[in-house]
Amino acid sequence: MSADLATAFDASPNPYILITPDLRIAGMNDAYLQVTNTRREDIIGRPLFAAFDSGPGEEAPENVRQVKASLEKARDTRQRDHLALVRFSMPKTGPDGETVFEDRYWSATHTPILDDDGNVAYLLQHTNDITELERLRRQHGLDETETVSALDAMIGGNVMRRAQLVQEDNRRLETERNRLIDLFMSAPGFVAILSGPDHVFEMHNTAYGNLIGRGSVVGKTLREALPDVEGQGYYELLDRVFATGEPFEGREAPVSFQTAANGPIQERFVNFVYQPIRDADGEVAGIFVQGNDVTDSVLAAQRQKLMIDELNHRVKNTLATVQSIAMQTARSHGDPASFAETFQARLMSLSHTHDLLTRSHWEGADLDEVLEHETEAHGRHRVLANGPHLALQPAAALSLGMIFHELATNAAKYGALSMPEGRVMVDWSVSEGPERRLSLIWHEIGGPAVTQPERRGFGSRLIERNVRHDLAGDVKLSYAADGFKAEISVPLARGHSS
């Protein structure tokens, strides 16, 4: 059968040439060799436009471009493509033996030949040399405005002219269409075209595919392509736009997709427009979908609002703390100079802890860092810390910072840090269980003899208030003769790490 087909191909009086997908000459019949005045061994295997380049004329590049564009279209679309009229010069031997080029006019059809897998194996070019028709038209007509014979109008003039004009219009339309498709596919926002009442995807761009987190959904209905959108109102909204012909615009609308196979549902926020597409009769034929993924800006605005609310809350709490410190310090200090010194020291303690929290963007601070900041003025070698890493929430860090400041200040005035050989041992641990708790012991050694104070000062009251009120914990202050001891136990939220 293959031999019969090859014999028929070669015996056909119509010119045929077989071309590979990369536009090299794979075969041709005798009629093609005759019409092109070539030999098989001279052109077989060569690039088509190296063997035939339409000569040196100014129009040669455009002639080549037209034929090449038609071949590539047939190859890429797997559909037959026609050239009604193309001017393409062919080489011939002149009287003196030199090679000259003769203008010829052709009509060509390019047909893709597919293999068993549906891929293009070859392109079949069938050409008709219609040069004599063109010459006949010129012989019968002087210009376009003069009356020509019926024969000229039928075969040599108007038919050919119309074909040429249609072909030129088609080329312009194809170029414009390709440009629009390129713009469509490369648009930074997401774009899709839905057809019919079932909203079948005719096409969508890369941004739309990235938004929904899956490959091409062309040819599928919306409900088939995006079953995870059910119950979010978008099916019904598109149905209403199709039925009423009224466009719809959404702003910062939440939509949830399963952006990966077997992955979690993720919420996105989009600005979008559903614009009806009408046919020639004015009926709604589909919907044009266009929009932008604004998730990042929406989440940023939400975070900003949360931070502002949190900042307002912290400022109010800080002002309340400052007010309490001022009032209690004033009650304990009749001397303005003494009041100013103590009040300033306590504010600086608050400021130190704020600095620590600011470095971590108010996500928390490590207990060891808070302790070091509040006691480093007394010498790091004199306050010995021993305990695991513990990240504190901002509120807990502020409260413990004030507590450490008061303990260190009292130790410097009356306790171990008032003596050169005095030391402070700070040990802490975290118990695991139904309720995680921090247990911390401040133990002073090497200081003067300790006696129970006759009255509770502001420092003691501040420590107890912070532990019991702010941290919901327990505190025990012991004034043993060998050294002051503070035992603190507070619950830890699950957000703490140790």
Q: If you had to describe this structure to a student in words, what would you say it looks like?
A:
This protein has 498 residues and is of the alpha+beta class. It has helices at residues 2-11, 30-36, 40-43, 48-51, 60-77, 131-140, 150-156, 158-186, 206-212, 222-225, 234-244, 295-332, 336-359, 367-375, 394-413, 458-470; strands spanning 16-19, 25-28, 81-87, 90-93, 99-102, 105-114, 120-129, 190-195, 200-204, 248-258, 265-278, 284-293, 365-366, 383-386, 391-392, 423-431, 437-445, 474-480, 483-491.
Annotated CATH homologous superfamily of the largest domain: Histidine kinase-like ATPase, C-terminal domain
> What is the tally of helical segments?
16
State the helical fraction: 40-55%
Rounded mean pLDDT is: 79
Low-confidence stretches: 142-159, 494-498
| CATH topological fold name of the largest domain | Heat Shock Protein 90
State the strand order across the main sheet. 2-1-7-6-3
> What characterizes the major β-sheet?
5 strands, antiparallel
Number of domains: 3
Question: How large is the share of residues in beta strands?
Answer: 25-35%
- Distance between the ends: 82 Å
The counted number of beta strands is: 19
Oligomer: single chain
Question: Can you lay out the helices and strands and say which pair or pack?
Answer:
Blueprint: H1 2-11, E1 16-19, E2 25-28, H2 30-36, H3 40-43, H4 48-51, H5 60-77, E3 81-87, E4 90-93, E5 99-102, E6 105-114, E7 120-129, H6 131-140, H7 150-156, H8 158-186, E8 190-195, E9 200-204, H9 206-212, H10 222-225, H11 234-244, E10 248-258, E11 265-278, E12 284-293, H12 295-332, H13 336-359, E13 365-366, H14 367-375, E14 383-386, E15 391-392, H15 394-413, E16 423-431, E17 437-445, H16 458-470, E18 474-480, E19 483-491
Parallel strand pairs: 14-16
Antiparallel strand pairs: 1-2, 1-7, 3-6, 4-5, 6-7, 8-9, 8-12, 10-11, 11-12, 13-15, 16-17, 17-19, 18-19
